[in-house]
Design a protein that fits this description.
- By secondary structure, the chain is an alpha/beta fold.
- Helix content is 22%, strand content 21%.
- The strands form 4 sheets. A 3-stranded parallel sheet has the order 2-1-3, sandwiched between helices. Strands 4-8 form a two-stranded antiparallel ribbon.
- The relative contact order is 0.15.
Length: 179
């Protein structure tokens, strides 16, 4: 192997894990070595809410600029965070098969969505899972919790909440707007 492919990525643990998976496949397919280029984005450095700093694209903009500047040959980024508008000079090159896309409930004491107590609070970080939405048990129960916004990596969000002793997938049907 003499070809080196420079792969741009954010430096978070989740971004690096996702990038390593893609890089392994890319290295094998191209019979090339991989060099990781870590790019710091506005979303990584700002503690403001995503809506305050621009929402969609705050994690992707610096990656795109790095690619256009020739600092890397390809970039790997979560598709859910990419702006939908095309950017001249770039194109989406590949989309790997998606894993289970549902949110996961991480609750203490072995609680499930059905057994969470009334008045519970849920911290959610994605703009699509904004505080204006809440969780509802997937039964006829009208039980709804308050959702609060949170920022940070998956690790820091878990660390700032109660310890997690169980994880349960939450389907789109389990979310309902707060009234």
């Amino acid at each position: 192997m003499s070809t080196v492919i420079r792969v741009g990525t954010r430096g978070s643990a989740l971004a690096l894990a996702q990038t390593r998976q893609i890089a392994e496949r890319l290295a094998k397919a191209a019979d090339a070595e991989i060099e990781f280029v870590t790019v710091t984005t506005q979303g990584d450095t700002s503690r403001a809410s995503l809506s305050e700093i621009g929402g969609t694209g705050v994690f992707a903009a610096a990656l795109r600029e790095s690619l256009l500047a020739g600092d890397c040959d390809v970039i790997v980024h979560s598709l859910k965070d990419l702006p939908t508008a095309d950017l001249p000079g770039l194109r989406l090159g590949a989309v790997p098969k998606r894993a289970d896309p549902r949110d996961a409930l991480c609750a203490r004491d072995g609680l499930t969505l059905e057994t969470l107590p009334e008045g519970r609070r849920s911290a959610r970080g994605r703009p699509a899972a904004s505080p204006s939405s809440a969780l509802r048990a997937p039964t006829s129960s009208p039980s709804i919790c308050a959702a609060t916004s949170t920022r940070g990596s998956a690790r820091s969000r878990r660390a700032s909440s109660t310890p997690c002793s169980s994880r349960h997938p939450v389907s789109a049907d389990s979310a309902a707007p707060t009234r």
